[in-house]
């Protein structure tokens, strides 16, 4: 039995540790998808709320999941996309932008440029690979300490530091290659 099928079976049996495992493994993946859709318009808290909503939805609809129709990761990706789009429908874009522009930056153009750069950086981080993307998101986006990341991922703290350093170097090379500056 494949790991994904085993995980799905444990979810269907309502084993709490299965949900914890899914959340630990896929939170960065789900967060990046949601951020890429709503990150330019909504707050960090909105992204976190939508991420949580995806996992609540997984728990509620586990019985309807079928391993022959796709993987848990595929379901989470589709659910994240749909949840983010539903969030967008719930807000008034113009009002949100106006409030945030004046609160964070009196210069609307500079604000929009900054948000676009953040979106580009998140996209580049997602190209680093699943493990490195997770490390970057945990360390730089969620402000988690290296010791906590090491404990959660089972990796050595020095390995995490090395991977972050190599990732920064790779991101710099990608930005230099594309002629962009963030």
TrEMBL record:
Gene Ontology molecular functions: DNA binding; sigma factor activity
Keywords noted in UniProt: DNA-binding, Sigma factor, Transcription, Transcription regulation
SUPFAM superfamilies for this protein: Sigma2 domain of RNA polymerase sigma factors, Sigma3 and sigma4 domains of RNA polymerase sigma factors
InterPro entries, sorted: RNA_pol_sigma-70-like, RNA_pol_sigma-70_dom, RNA_pol_sigma70_r2, RNA_pol_sigma70_r4_t2, RNA_pol_sigma_r2, RNA_pol_sigma_r3/r4-like, WH-like_DNA-bd_sf
All copies of domain RNA polymerase sigma-70 region, residue ranges: 44-90
Gene3D superfamilies assigned to the protein according to its UniProt record, in alphabetical order: 1.10.1740.10, Winged helix-like DNA-binding domain superfamily/Winged helix DNA-binding domain
Any Pfam family: Sigma70_r2
Metal-binding as UniProt keyword: no
Biological-process GO terms, alphabetical: DNA-templated transcription initiation
Membrane-spanning parts: none
Keyword Transcription regulation: yes
Family: Belongs to the sigma-70 factor family. ECF subfamily.
NCBIfam families in UniProt: sigma70-ECF (TIGR02937)
PANTHER family for this protein: RNA POLYMERASE ECF-TYPE SIGMA FACTO, RNA POLYMERASE SIGMA FACTOR HI_1459-RELATED
Name used for this protein in its record: Sigma-70 family RNA polymerase sigma factor
Biological source species: Aminipila luticellarii
């Amino acid at each position: 039995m494949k790991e994904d099928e085993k995980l799905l079976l444990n979810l269907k049996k309502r084993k709490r540790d299965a949900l914890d495992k899914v959340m630990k493994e896929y939170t960065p993946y789900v967060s990046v998808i949601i951020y890429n859709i709503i990150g330019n318009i909504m707050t960090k808290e909105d992204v976190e709320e939508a991420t949580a909503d995806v996992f609540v939805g997984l728990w509620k609809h586990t019985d309807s999941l079928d391993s022959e129709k796709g993987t848990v990761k595929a379901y989470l990706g589709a659910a994240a996309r749909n949840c983010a789009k539903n969030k967008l429908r719930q807000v008034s874009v113009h009002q949100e932008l106006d409030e945030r522009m004046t609160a964070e930056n009196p210069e609307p153009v500079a604000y929009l440029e900054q948000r676009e750069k953040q979106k580009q950086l998140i996209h580049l981080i997602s190209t680093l690979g699943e493990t490195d993307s997770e490390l970057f998101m945990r360390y730089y986006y969620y402000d988690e300490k290296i010791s906590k990341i090491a404990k959660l991922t089972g990796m050595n703290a020095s390995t995490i530091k090395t991977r972050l350093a190599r990732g920064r170097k790779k991101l710099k090379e990608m930005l230099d290659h594309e002629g962009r500056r963030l």
